[in-house]
Amino acid sequence: MSALLYSIAKTATETEMSGVDDQPVRSIDMSGLCVYYSELDEKVLNPKAINPEDHPALIFQEVISSIHQQGPSLPIQFGLLLDSTEEIQRLVEANLTEIRKELNRIGHTYEYSFHFHKQASTAQGVPESLTKADSPGAQYLLKKYQETKKSTQLGADMDKLSSNIERLTSEYLIEIRKSNQAETIRLDLRLTIGQLDKKSLSAVLTKDFPDYRIYIFGPYPPSHFVKLRLKTPH
Fold first, then answer.
1. Predicted confidence (pLDDT) per residue in 64-97, tens digit
2. CA-to-CA distance for 68 and 62, rounded, in angstroms?
3. Choice between 130 and 158, residue whose per-residue pLDDT is larger
4. pLDDT recorded at residue 224
5. Residue 209 — left, alpha, or beta (φ > 0 → left; ψ -120 to 50 → alpha)?
6. This prediction's pTM
7. Quick count: other Cβ atoms within 10 Å of Cβ 15?
8. pLDDT tens column, 15-42
9. Quick one: which of 206, 208, 207, 210 has its CA closest to 120?
């Protein structure tokens, strides 16, 4: 059996949870911190044995979220397996100063993820010479023109969406991260509030940006904002 790590917290909390593979979530106090883990057969995390509809990462996310609701914690990247509690101790001691510093920086904050999916594209503004020409060269230029126009528009929309969200969440906002892929914009926010009125926010944003379908996820531990990279002890 191996130890699957979930989180490192400032203080121990009362937890009676089942984790990955329905194994109990255990806690151990180390150097004034509390480490949460489950004893697990590493075969459970073999990609060939995983059912995508019941992926262990989904259960992992539920566990680290439950722990974080009770107090500041640093979520561990999914899949970190150690051989024993002694190895956990060595890992914590090798990173103790950095762990404490990052726990103090993150504090009891939460992450929310806003996804904006473009519902329709438009060919407006495309030069007539490109739309009417049927030569391979013209089609290539048309494709590049459309890709550039789409990217430019997406960038402008991202800035507007980010500005609106910053205004709407200014009371709780600490930091925000932006990314986009294809016609989807993603904004990750770190907030001081654990119960955000997602329904009202979605309604306001939908009114201002009717071309986008809007999804708001969270609260989660601030995984995308953790700067700590654990050093493996020698």
1. 999 999 999 999 999 999 999 999 999 999 999 9
2. 10
3. 158
4. 93
5. beta
6. 0.81
7. 18
8. 689 999 999 999 999 989 999 999 999 8
9. 210
Tokens 């990279």 map to which residue? 229
Q: What is the DSSP string of the chain?
A: -EEEEEEEESS------B-GGGPBPEEEEETTEEEEEEEE-GGGG-GGG--GGG-HHHHHHHHHHHHHHTS-EEEPPTT-EES-HHHHHHHHHHTHHHHHHHHHHH-S-EEEEEEEEE-----TT--HHHHH--SHHHHHHHHHHHHHHHHHHHHHHHHHHHHHHHHHTTTTEEEEEEEEETTEEEEEEEES-SS--HHHHHHHHHHH-TTEEEEEEEEE--GGG----PPPP-
The amino acid at residue 12 is: A
Q: Cβ distance 40 to 4 under 8 Å?
A: yes
Confidence grade of residue 52 (pLDDT, cut at 50, 70, 90): confident
Which of 17, 78, 8, 84 minimizes the C-alpha distance to 50?
A: 78
CA geometry: angle 24, 73, 32, nearest 5 deg: 85
